[in-house]
């Protein structure tokens, strides 16, 4: 009986590794396997990465079977995949706060990990927790959730990125929300915080979220399709007659205002901003069918772009909008928000 359960576990791990390899872009497979460092380099060289991905995944699984890979190693491979291919999930930013008068906690990351794991495993029986340190003093946490009667489901996971000595945590949730209170408790206990609150800031681009909350907009971080955006902008500049006929003084003013608003650096990458409007209808109280309406008007406006802040930055120089743009649009990185609710003052 014991022997068959071991075989079953091996099959579960093998299938998980196979599926993970199938998710990785072909160009990244070799790199990710080397970072994982579970299969020796001499054996990695035997894998033909030019064959179809299904065959590559089978070859990797066979090598992992020889080394008796466990779910512990498979989970680390999954974390490395998500660290390398970050734009697969929506990340939400949360901010933790200390109790009034409490000093900054100087405990190290190993203490944080131990405490986090103990608190969560004490609260929930079937939960699988994995950690991996990253180069920027952060720890990646992967949690596979089970139920009181079922083992952790390795395909229903939550990913978290926590930077020590900062109040921010970046979380990509799975669809299981019922264990959120236990997750918050583990985070706050491990980090010695009093409260955790969701910020109105989320994106596919983890590096951009970090740049915003740590106020590092002028530093290099992962960007995509920038060249094509610049080419698009230069095309607009040639074609748009409003640009061609602009006088030089106005053009210089627009460039100065744009530089003052956005700076000279590449903007953090946010792909949408949402504005929820809840205001009362303004009208002459004696006239109009809506004059006596007490209920506020509600509407939702959403701006979307592959690179929203760079797109906004290009509007005035392209002659599409006046400079300066509305502060509701330009305040996104400074306020660390891309979800807004506009109410009566």
TrEMBL record:
Predominant location category: nucleus
UniProt protein name: Centromere protein N isoform X3
Keyword Nucleus assigned: yes
Key word Mitochondrion present: no
Family: Belongs to the CENP-N/CHL4 family.
InterPro entries hit by this protein: CENP-NAC/CAD_complex, Chl4/mis15/CENP-N
Keywords: Centromere, Chromosome, Nucleus
PANTHER family: CENTROMERE PROTEIN N (PTHR46790:SF1)
Compartments, record wording: Chromosome, Centromere; Nucleus
GO (cellular component) term, any one: chromosome, centromeric region
Pfam families according to UniProt: CENP-N
Gene: CENPN
GO biological process: CENP-A containing chromatin assembly; chromosome segregation
């Amino acid at each position: 009986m014991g022997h068959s359960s071991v075989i079953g576990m091996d099959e579960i791990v093998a299938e998980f590794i196979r599926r993970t390899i199938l998710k990785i872009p072909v160009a990244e497979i070799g790199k990710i396997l080397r970072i994982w460092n579970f299969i020796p380099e001499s054996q990695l060289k035997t894998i033909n990465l030019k064959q179809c991905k299904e065959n590559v995944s089978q070859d990797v699984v066979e090598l992992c079977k020889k080394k008796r890979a466990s779910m512990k190693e498979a989970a680390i491979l999954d974390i490395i995949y998500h660290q390398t291919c970050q734009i697969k999930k929506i990340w939400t930013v949360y901010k933790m706060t200390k109790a009034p008068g409490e000093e900054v906690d100087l405990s190290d990351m190993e203490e944080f990990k131990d405490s986090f794991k103990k608190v969560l495993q004490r609260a929930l029986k079937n939960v699988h927790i994995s950690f991996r340190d990253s180069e920027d003093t952060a720890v990646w946490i992967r949690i596979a959730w089970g139920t009181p009667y079922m083992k952790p489901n390795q395909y229903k996971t939550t990913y978290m990125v926590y930077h020590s000595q900062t109040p921010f945590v970046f979380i990509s949730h799975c669809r299981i929300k019922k264990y959120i209170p236990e997750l918050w408790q583990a985070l706050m206990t491990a980090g010695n915080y009093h409260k955790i609150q969701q910020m109105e800031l989320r994106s596919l681009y983890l590096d951009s979220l970090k740049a915003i909350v740590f106020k590092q907009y002028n530093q290099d971080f992962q960007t995509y399709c920038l060249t094509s955006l610049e080419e698009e902008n230069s095309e607009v500049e040639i074609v748009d007659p409003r640009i061609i006929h602009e006088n030089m003084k106005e053009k210089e003013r627009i460039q100065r205002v744009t530089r003052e608003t956005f700076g000279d650096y590449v903007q953090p990458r946010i792909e949408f901003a949402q504005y929820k409007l809840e205001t009362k209808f303004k009208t002459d109280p004696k006239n109009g069918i809506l004059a006596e309406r007490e209920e506020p008007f509600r509407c939702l406006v959403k701006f979307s772009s592959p690179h929203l802040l760079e797109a906004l930055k290009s509007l005035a120089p392209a002659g599409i909008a006046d400079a300066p743009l509305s502060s509701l649009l330009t305040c996104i990185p400074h306020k660390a928000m891309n979800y807004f609710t506009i109410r009566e003052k």
